[in-house]
From TrEMBL:
Keywords: Hydrolase. It holds the Pfam family HAD_2. The keyword Hydrolase applies. Transmembrane segments: none annotated. InterPro entries: HAD-like_sf (IPR036412), HAD-SF_hydro_IA (IPR006439), HAD-SF_hydro_IA_YjjG/PynA (IPR011951), HAD_2 (IPR041492), HAD_sf (IPR023214), PGP-like_dom2 (IPR023198), Pyrimidine_5'-ntase_YjjG (IPR052550). One of its GO terms (molecular function) is 5'-nucleotidase activity. It comes from the Bacteria. This is Putative hydrolase of the HAD superfamily. Coiled coil: none annotated.
Length: 229
């Protein structure tokens, strides 16, 4: 099962190394207390998480801008749970959410162990669609920044995964080649198909263990990367 000839390993960050859902839930708990937002957090997250994913898809496809993403995902969720929140409150929450999000630093199980395992063997990199102002803070606050030779985010490049430009930008930045590189991520469209389309290998991090019809390399736990690398 080992993938031969790999020199450069590219990771997605959110939902792959950095436990976005856990850290996001802690962030909402904090900012709701700060602003005295009396909602049931579990109910809020039940609606917010799929709404957020839908808005990220629109953002990835260049159909909405960053401000719309940040505002509408909150507004739509509050509407779902019939909580009256005016635009001033939503704007304050959206700002505080970004400010506090990277102060929480939960990683997926075995993240540090697998990075320690890979670091002596490969050049490690990040390619992320996340916002530039928070992604580096996430890496530093979770104490994994030092593992990575390069960090490429969509705001640097002006396009988002799965656009081939972001993959080519990341490769060119470190003089890596598609045929000796592998992309590891949780998003089938953005990470896996995006990488495969430019000739990279790809490993799908299927951490939710969903039934998946795609016949490609996949793992449920980061430790399973040792089977391939």
């Amino acid at each position: 099962m080992k993938i031969n000839g790999i020199k450069d390993v590219f990771f997605d960050l959110d939902h792959t190394l950095w436990d976005f859902d856990k850290n996001s839930a802690l962030t909402f708990s904090k900012i709701f207390k700060i602003h005295n937002v009396a909602v049931n957090l579990e109910e809020f997250l039940h609606y917010y998480e799929p709404i957020n994913l839908d808005y990220w898809k629109l953002f990835r496809e260049e159909r909405i801008d960053k401000a719309s993403l940040r505002y509408n995902r909150l507004n739509d969720t509050f509407n779902k749970i019939s909580f009256q929140a005016d635009s001033t409150l939503i704007h304050k929450l959206s700002i505080d959410y970004i400010m506090y999000l990277s102060t929480f630093n939960h990683l997926f199980d075995n993240t540090v162990d697998i990075l320690n395992y890979l670091k002596p063997k490969y050049n490690l990199h990040i390619i992320t669609n996340g916002f530039q102002e928070v992604q580096e803070s996430k890496l530093r606050n979770s104490n994994i920044h030092h593992f990575f030779q390069s960090i490429t985010d969509s705001e640097q490049v002006g396009v988002k995964k799965p656009n081939p430009k972001i993959f080519n930008f990341a490769l060119n930045k470190v003089k890596a080649h598609p045929e000796t590189s592998v992309m590891i991520g949780d998003n089938m469209e953005a990470d896996i198909l995006g990488a495969l389309n430019i000739g990279m290998e790809a490993i799908y991090f299927n951490y939710l263990k969903t039934v998946d019809k795609h016949s490609m390399k996949q793992i449920n736990n980061l430790d399973e990367l040792k089977l391939f690398l």
